[in-house]
Predict the 3D structure of the following.
Amino acid sequence: MTQHTIFSARRARLAAQLGAGGVAIIPTAPEQRRNRDSDYPYRHDSYFYYLTGFAEPDAWLVLDAAGRSTLFCRPKDEEREIWTGLRLGPQAAPAALGVEAAYSVDELEQRLPQLLAGAQALWLPFGVHQGLFERAEGWLEELRAKARAGVQPPAQLRDVCALLDEMRLIKDGDEQRLMRRAGAISAAGHVRAMRRCAAMLRAGQQPCEYHLEAELLHAFRDAGAQGVAYPSIVAAGANACVLHYPAGSAPCREGDIVLIDAGCELDGYAGDISRSFPAGGRFTAPQRALYEVVLAAQQAAIDACRAGARFDAPHNAALAILTQGLLDLGLIDRRRHPDVQTALAQRAYLPFYMHRTSHWLGMDVHDCGSYTEAGEKGAARILHPGMVLTIEPGLYVRPAEGVPERYWNTGIRIEDDAIVTDAGCELITRDVPVEPNDIEALMRQDYILHK
Ligand code: CA
């Protein structure tokens, strides 16, 4: 399929769900001011991009139930384009994007009431774009003013995200291909960062969190990814116990575990990997003991991840292993929680493991899609082939009374991305190792700048 037929096919699938007389209006994201006259790097809206493959700002898609697509986009403007880059422009848009019609975004206000005339239902993304409902109110008012001419405004307002979330939850072949590539590039970044850390210590230099972050960024951009899918977490020693710690300037010392949670964004799709490794390339015995528990928990979660299982099956599998491990290592007090069932029921793992094991992954790192099964009163979602989720158990040990000191200030998370298949799941991020012996072997290898 050529690029635009993938997007045309998605629009046709959405159109078929709008119901007779339905019209959907989906804007892309606005540009965001950073400071003075500098903007943040532009990131399109995921819903809009899913349906168009169009990454310019100031664009709108109008789709009707008959499958007719109208795009509003920035007009060609030679002078502006010299400063801010080439624009596709409405003239070239139909051939490039497969839309039936395209106009300048300057004509949006004037043309939208016409496009909505006679529509029965207006579908908008709810809770995504500030000010969208106020604008829609204006178009509807204009239609109502023409009531005497026989024009009726749509009688229903509905959430188009409800339809799109379900579509986006199952990744099609094109999306899976991109996500495999995003996973491989993200893994290459982790490999670089691990090697750099150990190599600097071997050379008598002091690696800091920012050195490792630089390796991630290098690998991502070098492979053609547009950037990071989310701010990279590079956390040395005690910092790893702060779940959303951003890469800072702390030194990675011999004896520290470094936790990296980072992934690239490739053509709108996110990779999301966590690895935890010894800064100097060798786990201490207590570090390895904790690490083995998290790794076993991850394997149990992976084994529980398959089509037909519930979304929370991997989490429950991981929790049982983590809790048993915490009991075995003496982090959970056996006198208060004599066995794993009691410890699980009393959630004795909570001081050490306070997040869920999985989230949906796709264009958004915490991707859209309901986590519960419709009509089953909160029962967890049943997994289907093509769903993509992270599998990321962890243990975070802060200094605390009753917790053996040898485990203090150690944060370990192991995270891989999985595509659900009929038989199980396909891990798309294993180009960076997880076995402790493999990590140590990798970190012993010489750091090669351009690999
Ligand atoms: Ca993550």
